[in-house]
Each structure stands twice: as C-alpha cells, then as structure tokens.
Specification:
Length: 188
C-alpha cells in the first residue's frame, strides 16, 4: 500500500518520515488542603505533540533538508497533513539534524505542536453593559472563562501580563484557581 506524502504548509515530503509519534497532554493543578488532603483541578486538554524522525537520501538530500528548514523558519501555524493521522493546524516547533549531514544522506528529527487557540488575533470583547454590569464602569471589558483556560492564557490573548490581569481582578486571590463561567476583567 502506497501512502500519500506528509505535507505541512507548502512543503511536501519526498518520502514519509520513518517514525511518527503523537503525545496527548492534559494539564492539571494540585491544591493542597488541610489534613493531608488535596483538590485536583483539571485544566483541560493541552496540545497534541507530534514528533518523528526521517531521512533524506539521494544526490540532493541536504538541499531537501534546507527546504524543510526554510518552512521551519516561516512564522505561524499551518495545515499539517499526515496520510494516516487526522489533519490539523499545527506549529512547527523543532527541527534537528540527527547526525552530521552529508550531501547524499541526512537524518533529521522534527516536532509539531497542535493547539486549540493560536494567539495571533485578539478576540472581540464585550463591554460591561453587554457582559456583566459593573457600577460606575462603562468601558470595562470582560471575558468568560471556558474549560481549559488559565489566567496566563487569558492575559496573553488580551495583550496583558499576568500581573496586569491580576491588578484588574483584585477579587482573584489564587491565580491558579479560576472557574468555568467566571467573568474576568481584561480592560478597565
């Protein structure tokens, strides 16, 4: 059975990588409570990490590796197509030579990371009058916490540091503990 070649953005592998692994990640935080007990908070699924190893061989093997490296330097996520696994949007996060390159043979490793959100565009914010009324504040903007959100991720999506976000939300005493449906102020 001949499989279609793996593709990422505008690059098509001349032959598929030899190995391909997918790691699924889930984020969780442990909160200690008195008497040796604890509370485990599920922060939701993280990104899938796709790694592998392959070789380029033949007269122009090193030139082919340079083409792949050019794609690596291209910013932002792209469509990753693997002939067996599902297609996804992913970021090319690592490319390395696994041995000293030769003109006719190059062994390499790679890593792609899939994420639910790519923080390239700021989301549309609701004003306080539309989201949640706040006495005396008309320009305030809020986001609603969804499953898997962290304060750090909310801060990044809205162009803030974690410290700035905490200053806007003095009611949040523990920055590692937020709840689905909670309103978080991102602009005062």
């Amino acid at each position: 059975m001949i499989l279609e070649p793996m593709r990422y953005k505008n690059y098509v592998w001349p032959h598929n990588p030899e190995t391909y692994r997918i790691t699924y990640e889930r984020a969780a935080v442990v909160h200690k409570v008195p008497f040796g007990r604890y509370f485990l908070q599920d922060l939701g699924m993280g990104c899938r990490v796709m790694t592998g190893e392959g070789v380029f061989y033949g007269e122009n093997a090193y030139d082919e590796f340079k083409k792949l490296a050019t794609v690596f330097y291209d910013d932002g996520p792209g469509d990753l197509y693997h002939p067996v696994w599902m297609s996804t949007k992913a970021l090319f996060t690592r490319l390395s030579l696994a041995q000293e390159p030769r003109r006719d043979y190059v062994r390499y490793t790679f890593e792609f990371r899939e994420e639910v959100y790519f923080y390239t565009d700021k989301p549309q914010l609701k004003t306080a009058s539309a989201a949640a009324p706040v006495a005396g504040v008309s320009d305030a903007a809020y986001v609603t916490v969804v499953r898997g959100d962290t304060l750090w991720a909310i801060a990044v999506r809205n162009g803030l540091s974690l410290q700035q976000l905490l200053a806007l939300n003095p009611g949040i005493k523990n920055p590692n503990l937020i709840y689905v449906g909670q309103k978080v102020c991102v602009r005062a």
